[in-house]
Design a protein that fits this description.
Layout (H helix, E strand, L loop, with lengths): L1 E7 L11 E8 L2 H8 L2 H4 L3 E4 L5 E3 L3 E8 L4 E6 L3 E7 L4 H11 L17 H4 L2 E2 L2 E2 L4 E8 L5 E5 L20 E11 L9 H6 L8 H15 L17 E3 H10 L6 E2 L4 E3 L2 H7 L6 E2 L2 E3 L7 E3 L5 H19 L8 E3 L2
Parallel strand pairs: 2-5, 3-5, 4-19
Antiparallel strand pairs: 1-2, 6-7, 7-12, 8-9, 10-11, 10-12, 13-15, 14-15, 16-17, 17-18
Length: 338
Amino acid sequence: MKTYENHSLLPYNTFGIDVDASYLVEYDSEEELVQLLQLDLLKENKFLHIGGGSNLLFIGNYQGVILHSHIMGIEVKNVTDSDVFVKVGSGVVWDDFVAYCVAKNYGGVENLSLIPGEVGATPVQNIGAYGVEVKDVIYKVECIDVATGEKRIFTNPECKFAYRDSIFKRELKGKYIVTAVWFKLNRSPRLHVNYGSLAEEIKKYPEPTIHEVRQAVVAIRQRKLPEPKVLGNAGSFFLNPVVDQNHFAKLQQQYPDMPFYDLHDGTFKIPAGWLIEQCGWKGKSVGKVAVHGSQALVLINKGGANGLDIINLSDSIRQSVREKFEIELTPEVNLIFG
């Protein structure tokens, strides 16, 4: 366990916001986390657990304790004729795990290649891309109860997964810390390649395997998304909004070429990037921040921006979309106030 005082969080957030935390504590095991939760440091200060910082926007210095997991390890726990069950430490870099799975020909996560962050955050956010969500492969989630220090295991249904959502973001927010995630992967991978731009990219491979799916997804993401070390960003800043049948019919009449995804429950998902682009924001700069020129869902720190700069840009975009489409955009990024 390592404790740092008045520590910079610049390396701990992909937006590249230069703020400090009163304390930063990194732990290496479940046992160390339990010990940590019993310390006066956490009892006397507010604290926030982070992963790779890829879905955070710090608005100012954090007057409390930042916790970060260094629990590592990828361990095959069980193998059947059709499936393999793998336990992964919360501190493992997500894309390192995806690369491991693809190398072993374990199917299920290849569409989620190159998503930034760490494994511990994946069930909290229910990360997803190109028609696949991590809930599709999560078997169970190991956690520590913040209040008692006791271990609890959540089954997949108990996690109450929804679009970019889970029980850990709602009624149990801040009450449990993920220490490991178990994944149920397929030994005979079934490809999911008919979603969005992946359907076009995969045509480059006559007989694609999960290796080619990963290559295609990586190629798309590298074209569309800026490297955080060059231009600070948190990937998609907004959730794709969902509208009801009446609103959808009205929009489709006005914009017949509008892309959409029928959710087959009377609602329709509209790509937020398209909405933002229609409002003229794609590629637009405002001071030290901007909307990315290749992907309007991505807000970028051009250098030296603070959290309020990005919030102000976000608010302006939301207002434009609200006025033009009568749709309320919701940030996917977690806003952290000091």
